[in-house]
Write a structure and sequence with these properties.
Radius of gyration: 29 Å
Number of helices: 12
Largest sheet: none
Number of domains: 2
Structural class: mainly alpha
Helix content: over 70%
Strand content: under 5%
Length: 331
């Protein structure tokens, strides 16, 4: 056995050095060294099998087992990137590209919300009693409210302290995240509940808009709702799109089993969900701090326009990046 060890130890020591260098930075190894690493790994696995079956040297077998396991992790496991670098890659275009890959579902979700808003808006204009059926119980901003009451509600909270606004932002994020996750998760029920929730959310928005328009409140109402609404409604649309995507995986699994189809869609949807959570944080901060501020109406509208341009540009970037990747897989 001593001759066996003496004959093969140089290979083991060389493999140890290559593994140590690769763990520090795989890029430091040349193509020739990477090829050598693979050769030595395969050779050492043979040595491990020989030692395990032909001898009782437990310490040598343990040493070779640890060495081959370390080499295996270097060769076959994907390199772990720095957490901050991975997070930046996701924020930069990972989220936008995930949305781009499923854009049809998100477009349908946006259409359902818009449909609900249009139906409710005209329904309330034709019969104001419809607002009582559509708006949440206890909501005082109903057709019976005066113009002054509605304006007072729009301007409420502007003099609150930062602590109260922070608590409100936390509540808004928690509430909106629950609504979004509900719309997302119910997609597994053939997407029927997701469709209903999307239309209902649109109807509440349409009824709320009709109430304010009915009292002649136009510009200030939109300056109140769209600075945070662009981001918040966008997040709700994406949650609904995920729900539709999961529903399709259940109803039309294709060549996969329903469980496998749902798993594949779930992995893809996970990336969008992470991005949506970030959007809801942003929306909660805007709704709590900017909406409840003394910022002039014109400035609010400019901010809302800037927010819309930002998100439109961000997701357009994701579409372009995904298109380039399809044209050139090495991109």
């Amino acid at each position: 056995m001593s001759d066996y060890i003496a004959r093969n130890r140089p290979d083991w020591e060389e493999l140890e050095k290559l593994v140590a260098r690769a763990r520090r930075s795989i890029r430091d190894l040349s193509p020739e060294e990477l090829a050598r690493l693979d050769v030595l790994y395969r050779r050492t696995t043979v040595h491990l099998a020989q030692v395990a079956t032909r001898t009782r040297d437990a310490s040598l077998a343990r040493y070779l087992n640890d060495l081959t396991a370390a080499a295996h992790s270097v060769i076959y496991l994907p390199p772990r990137g720095a957490p901050l670098k991975s997070a930046w890659a996701f924020v930069h275009d990972g989220f936008a590209r995930a949305v781009a890959r499923s854009w049809r579902y998100h477009a349908i979700a946006a259409g359902l919300i818009l449909l609900g808003a249009i139906i409710a808006y005209f329904a309330v204009q034709q019969d104001q009693a419809a607002a009582y059926a559509l708006l949440p119980e206890g909501e005082f901003r109903q057709p019976g409210a005066s113009r002054e009451q509605l304006l007072q509600a729009l301007r409420y909270g502007r003099d609150e302290g930062s602590g109260q606004k922070f608590a409100f932002a936390s509540f808004l994020f928690s509430h909106n995240l629950q609504v979004g996750l509900l719309s997302l998760a119910l997609g597994v029920l053939a997407a029927v509940p997701s469709v209903i929730l999307l239309i209902y959310n649109g109807m509440m928005l349409g009824a709320f808009t009709a109430v304010h328009h009915g009292s002649g409140i136009y510009v200030e109402y939109w300056a109140w709702i769209i600075p945070h609404g662009v981001t918040e409604i966008g997040a709700i649309v994406l949650c609904g799109g995920i729900g539709l995507q999961l529903g399709r995986a259940v109803v039309c699994p294709g060549r996969f089993t329903r469980a496998e189809s749902l798993r594949r869609s779930g992995v893809e949807a996970m990336w969008t969900t992470l991005g949506v959570a970030g959007m809801l944080v942003v929306a909660a901060v805007i709704e709590s701090y900017l909406r409840q501020s003394h910022l002039p109406t014109a400035s609010r509208l400019v901010f809302a326009a800037g927010t819309f341009v930002f998100w439109a540009s961000y997701f357009a970037h994701g579409f372009l990046a995904e298109r380039r990747l399809k044209k050139n897989p090495k991109f």
